[in-house]
Amino acid sequence: MDFSKVMQERRSVKKYDQNVKMTKEKIEKIIEIASLSPSAWNLQQWHFLIVTDEDKKQLLQRCAWNQPKVSEASASIVVLGDLLAYERAGEVAEEWAQKSYVPSDGKKGLIDSIYNFYEDIQTQRDEAIRGASLAAMSLMLTAKDMGYATCPMIGFDPEAIRKEFSIPDRYVPALMITLGKGEETRERASRRSPKEIITYETF
Ligand SMILES: Cc1cc2nc3c(=O)[nH]c(=O)nc-3n(C[C@H](O)[C@H](O)[C@H](O)COP(=O)(O)O)c2cc1C
């Protein structure tokens, strides 16, 4: 699909055809493409908890203000941000040296920079949410391109999800996404104009 058409036609879809079950392969293809998203130092802070089992979707729905789309969609995905993604600094440095992004004697400097940057917990959290959110947007656009609908969601109790789905402490739930065959055409709500949202050069 033409990219601007994907952007124009992507919507937050609340109703899904419950007869359409997406295959694992299709879902994984969407995730694979979404993971081409950029991230600071290519640390790829995202992780996807994919829920397709009917009982587990019901459980997830109860953690998400009981929004019916969570169980009606083919899959509901909790997009997690990894607070400890910076611990992959060594792998990043290794690959970057191999690909000559940095000289081979620059590996230690790169690793030190990454660890220094992620020293404080606020930065770790900001980056986890930022990375996961970029991947989440890519996931939604990729799904649209492949003929599927999504809805991003913040209406959930992150601690309930953590407990019910045994999410390790290193991950923070950034947002949820329902994914499936959409069954809805609602007129889109308007957007603020470029004039309202742009400031050139400085405030
Ligand atoms: C971070 C975020 C959280 C959202 N949370 C919910 C939610 O919990 N439930 C819901 O039905 N829609 C949710 N939405 C969907 C928005 O209402 C929707 O994106 C917005 O109204 C614009 O509509 P459109 O995406 O169809 O253009 C959320 C969207 C975002 C980006």
Lay out the secondary structure:
Elements: H1 3-9, H2 24-34, E1 46-51, H3 54-62, H4 69-72, E2 75-82, H5 89-98, H6 107-117, H7 121-145, E3 149-153, H8 158-164, E4 171-180, H9 194-197
Antiparallel strand pairs: 1-2, 2-4, 3-4
The structure holds flavin mononucleotide.
Domain Nitroreductase: 8-181
Keywords: Oxidoreductase
EC number: 1.7.1.-
Mind explaining what this structure looks like?
By secondary structure, the chain is an alpha+beta fold. The protein has a single domain, classed as 3-Layer(aba) Sandwich (NADH Oxidase). 43% of the residues lie in helices and 14% in strands. Helix 2 crosses helix 7. The relative contact order is 0.22. Flavin mononucleotide (FMN) binds next to strand 3. Flavin mononucleotide (FMN) binds at residues 11-12, 14, 67, 151-155, 175, 188-189. It holds the Pfam family Nitroreductase. Keywords: Oxidoreductase. Residues 8-181 form the Nitroreductase domain.
